[in-house]
Amino acid sequence: MQKYLKYIIPISIPLIVLLLPLSAFPFDGLTIIQQRVIAIFLLAALCWVFEPIPIYATSVVIIVLELLLVSNKGLYLFRLNEGQPQFGELLSYNEIMATFASPIIMLFLGGFFLAMAATKYRLDVNLARVLLKPFGSDPKFVMLGLMLITGIFSMFMSNTATTAMMLSILTPVIAVFGPKDPGRIAFALCIPVAANIGGIGTPIGTPPNAIALKYLVGDNYISFGEWMAFGVPFVVVMMALAWMLINFLYSADQKKIELSIKGKFLKTPKAIMVYITFTLTIVLWLMGSSHGMNSYTVALIPVAIFSLTGIINKEDLKKISWDVLWLVSGGIALGLALDKTGLARLVVHSIPFDAFSPYVVLFGAAFLCLVMANFMSHTATANLLMPIMAALGTSMASLTPLGGEITLILVVTFAASLGMSLPISTPPNALAHATGHVQSNQMAKVGVILGVVGVMLSFVLVWLLHAVGHIG
């Protein structure tokens, strides 16, 4: 019976939710469409936890169910009550289908092309040889080197692109471990963790940071340097904690890595083209949007160049992890439904923040953000919560001794980037899961601990900086 629970629970609970009357929910003004999204959300969450089907299949199911149940081109049977006040507004089927071609998917595709070309022309092997040499042969210090390099890059470029690049470097390193060595898990997991944490260090490191800056104006203004003054120390401390935690949970059996990475950079015309394109793409990412292009546009440059020159051919295309693209698409579609139907906003507004003490508000808002960021886009979570937090911080005088609006916004911003407990939580997690070396439960164990500790640490750090007058 126990083995069937992983199938029964994910199906039965969403069905019960669908059959309940609207009055059974603790939300005023809940619509039928929002009720269906709750059911889809629960189905997705339970399927990602119990894994009765592959996680990429869950994402496809999410998109199909949204098209059938909550889109304007769904089954006619599910649109019979359209126009009634309690029915709600249907989503555009175009928006749901567009998740398959979202800019983040294009960023993934560019990362895949870079990684594939790097592997094909041994750029990843040579980079591993050069970058990891100073860190010796002890597995824990080699992992520290990987995390530091990843964290620094992710401060200035896309976390997803950084992860894709670093995972390509990781391949020859992880091959040294035995098939059952926990070191495989540790090395596959350290890259997305370092990327997610590293992005917090600068205002341009991750989208939630940029969103927060829109609300940090006037007396609460924070410059690029001031952000780094608290962002970088936070990253350093969290990186150290993450390194120690991963080493503790998944300590490598092999006590020494003999990195016999030999060879030299190829000098063929195609190899040189790979080097130039690889470098150009990274430089453009590092430059942010100063050249007029965002990271998504830049990501398509290697796709075009490698396709045009034959560096990546049709046989190589078959090796792309399409399941990862589907996985991320499902996460984007779920966030879209939560946002566009107004369900996420309804849930947030239903919590009476002003009835609690400032400490409860701070930690409650941060942990709410942390939970939401694990199931929907970090950017969508920040976009949804930030205006509410800004208004809440302004209206609550009891928050002033703790830093007021600025503390609330920054703690919630950090929480948005710390949502990394599931493969769907963040693109770097999905990429790491795609390697096959780390499972969902292993990722969740590290992600939950770092998320909770990170929220507590962010509050202490921001409050201290406010107390000494560095911010606020």
UniProtKB/TrEMBL annotation:
Coarse class of the protein's main subcellular location: membrane
Topology of the protein relative to the lipid bilayer: Multi-pass membrane protein
Coiled-coil ranges per UniProt: none
Signal peptide stretch: none
Transmembrane segments: 7-27, 33-50, 55-76, 96-118, 139-156, 162-178, 185-207, 227-250, 271-287, 293-312, 324-344, 356-375, 382-400, 406-425, 446-466
InterPro entries: CitT-rel, SLC13A/DASS
GO MF terms, alphabetically ordered: phosphate transmembrane transporter activity
UniProt keyword terms in alphabetical order: Membrane, Transmembrane, Transmembrane helix
Keyword flag Transcription: no
GO CC annotations on file: plasma membrane
Compartments (UniProt record): Membrane
One Pfam family here: Na_sulph_symp
Homology family: Belongs to the SLC13A/DASS transporter (TC 2.A.47) family. DIT1 subfamily.
PANTHER family: LOW-AFFINITY PHOSPHATE TRANSPORTER PHO91, SOLUTE CARRIER FAMILY 13 MEMBER
Protein name: Dihydroorotate dehydrogenase
